[in-house]
Amino acid sequence: MLLIGMLPLGAAAAPPSKGTHKLIVQNTDSAALQALAQSGGKQLVDYGSFSLWQAPEIQSQSVAGRSSVTTHDDLNTIQLRGTTLDTTTGTVAPVAANVRQVKTSGKQFWMVQFVGPIKSAWLENLKKLGIEIVGYVPNNAYVVWLDGSALTQLESLAKTDPTIQWTGEYHPQYRLAPVFRGAKAPQSAQMTPATVRWPGGHRCP
Fold it and tell me: Which pLDDT belongs to residue 170?
C-alpha cells in the first residue's frame, strides 16, 4: 500500500466540524482507540499500523498526552507559495481578479485535498475519471489536470467520498512568489508572456 505524504512516526466534501481535531493513533494502543470510539471520536481511515481520527476538543485532550497519539490539524491545510489554505472553513485567501482561476469546459489545473496521508487507491479513483495527477502539494493534496466534464465528476465524487476533504481552484496567484503579488508594473513596461512547465509537460501560463 502506497502512502503519499506520510507523517513522521471550491466544491468540497463536508469539512471537519469546528472544535474538532485530527489525531494519528498507533493501532497498538487499544485503550486510546476505545476511549475515542466511546466518547464521540470518528475513525476516518485505518492505515494498518496507525489510524486517523477526528475527535471533539475534550475527547482529544483526554488522549493527547499518550505517546501513541499525535495531533495533526496540519492535515486540514494546504501549503502554497506564501499562502496557507485552511480547508476546514471552506474559504480561501483573497485572490486578485487578474490571477484567478475560473471553471472552463477545457483543460485546467485544479486542486484536490484528501482527508489524510494518501493511499494509492485514492489516486486511482481520480484517474478513472480521466483526471491526470500533476504534482503533490502539502498537506495530502495534489494539483491535477482535467477538463470541465471531469471536474463536474470530481465535484460529485467529493460530496460522497469521505476520503476527499476539499477540491478547489489552483489559482495562478498561488504559483507566484509572494514578492510579485500585488506588484504594479510601470506604465511604460511591456508585458512578456512566460510559461512554467510542470513535470510531464503541462504548462502554467
Answer: 93
